[in-house]
Design goal:
binds FE2/S2 (inorganic) cluster, binds fe (iii) ion, 14 helices, about 25% strand, alpha+beta
């Protein structure tokens, strides 16, 4: 209690020095006690999108998801059900799975060889006392839910927020894009030497795009990058209105075709509960049909699309879990805090499960834009972190094109103070 009181008083002190419209003060990025509280109050409470079911198609297939100090085994059981367990041996706590992925009939701990089934039951433990009950020492469950092929976990030790309620406004759009009938075309990891908030803040604004992302900016139309690059409402209203007027014919044709063109902004009630969901769907522009180097499709149509309409959906389940969808592929963005000054961004590209590599798609075409863009993001975020650690740093004023950063801070404070 004393420690918590001390923590909250330093947190409140930092918060008092925060001025709306500016970036957060330096202490928010350097105080270890704040980082561990952020994990408990924010990261461990959200439903985190971690991967796609096509990574583990057969019984015994597993992968390990790692973030902060946690390591989670996601494994398909013999009954075909996908479960998640803490990668912590119930004997003396060793990590059990040391490989990132694999396929196993039994998970054998490398320390004293306790063995667990793919359903998490303890199956073998040598020389134990007579009264030892195997059934009391199964692996500890981690909350897991799957929606249309997307795997979500929740690291809360208590009951997590209701998954259906969390997912409900996003279901229709995700469903339209056919993630449940897709497969992984590629994955890449981008380790980033920066606090996770800098990684997330960068994803909340496209003020940097025209400058830092020449490839991304040449695929999209300039006014899209300015008004929609970081989502609706991130540019001054009159500029956004002008852009929306321009794309009205495209929206009308979506309505006629029965394809999505709606926008979802988090409700006040959702915000109070610590939620931060978003989606929109707009045209890529420049006559481009997909988010590729030359604007041409890179794979087969996905989901319920009958033809290419050049749309792009931006979906955010929460700031740690986002997806982009074109007509022919999807990109899952998984943002992971590692330690106070280390994060990892993982990108997973999805294509139609019927698409054949080499015939219908080439992974290099599918990954091009977001691979190059994320490499550029990694560099600008790491530079941001370096400068922010200087004794000379003081919070700067956010532009009119970075309002979603302030929105992100508001979400952050709501969660941090809900304890
Ligand atoms: Fe796993 Fe001993 S710690 S068997
Ligand atoms: Fe960027």
């Amino acid at each position: 209690l004393v420690i918590n009181f001390k923590l909250m008083s330093s947190f409140n002190q930092y918060k008092e020095s925060y001025q709306e419209g500016k970036t957060l003060p330096q202490d928010f990025y350097t105080d270890e006690s704040i980082f561990s509280e952020e994990m408990k109050q924010i990261y461990f409470k959200q439903w985190l999108m971690v991967d796609h079911i096509s990574r583990i198609p057969n019984p015994g297939d597993y992968f390990v998801f790692e973030a902060e100090k946690e390591s989670i085994i996601v494994i398909r059981g013999r009954d075909n059900e996908i479960r998640a367990f803490y990668n912590v041996c119930t004997h003396r706590g060793s990590r059990i799975c040391l490989d990132e992925e694999g396929s196993k009939k039994l998970l054998v701990c490398p320390y004293h060889a306790w063995s667990f089934s793919a359903e998490g039951e303890l199956k073998a433990a040598r020389h134990m006392p007579d009264d030892f009950k195997m059934e009391d020492y199964g692996l500890k469950n981690c909350h897991i839910k799957i929606y249309e092929g997307l795997i979500f976990i929740n690291l809360s030790l208590d009951d997590p927020m209701d998954f259906d309620e969390f997912m409900s406004p996003l279901k229709e759009l995700v469903n339209f894009h056919g993630t449940g009938k897709s497969k992984i075309a590629a994955r890449k990891k981008y380790p980033t030497d920066a606090n996770f908030k800098l990684v997330l803040e960068n994803f909340q604004e496209c003020y940097h795009c025209s400058n830092a992302h020449p490839e991304f900016s040449s695929v999209h139309e300039k006014d899209w990058v300015y008004t929609m690059g970081a989502g609706l409402g991130t540019a001054p209203e009159k500029d956004t209105d002008e852009y929306l007027k321009k794309i009205r014919p495209w929206i009308e044709s979506c309505k006629k075709q029965g394809t999505p063109s709606e926008t979802y902004l988090e409700t006040d009630e959702g915000l109070r509960k610590g939620l931060n969901r978003y989606f929109d769907r707009t045209p890529i522009g420049n006559g481009h049909l997909s988010q590729t180097k030359n604007g041409k499709p890179a794979s087969k149509l996905m989901g319920k699309f009958k033809e290419f309409d050049g749309g792009l959906s931006q979906v955010s389940f929460n700031p740690f879990s986002c997806c982009y969808f074109t007509n022919d592929f999807g990109i899952m963005f998984v943002f992971k805090p590692d330690s106070i000054l280390k994060s990892e961004v993982e990108l997973i590209w999805l294509v139609n499960e019927d698409a054949e590599e080499g015939k219908d798609y080439n992974p290099d075409d599918v990954t091009y834009i977001w691979d190059v863009t994320t490499q550029e993001d990694t560099t600008i975020i790491e530079n941001n972190q370096k400068g922010l650690l200087s004794q000379s740093f003081s919070p700067g004023v956010l532009s009119q094109n970075e309002s979603a950063v302030t929105y992100f801070y508001n979400w952050y404070f709501t969660n941090m103070q809900s304890s």
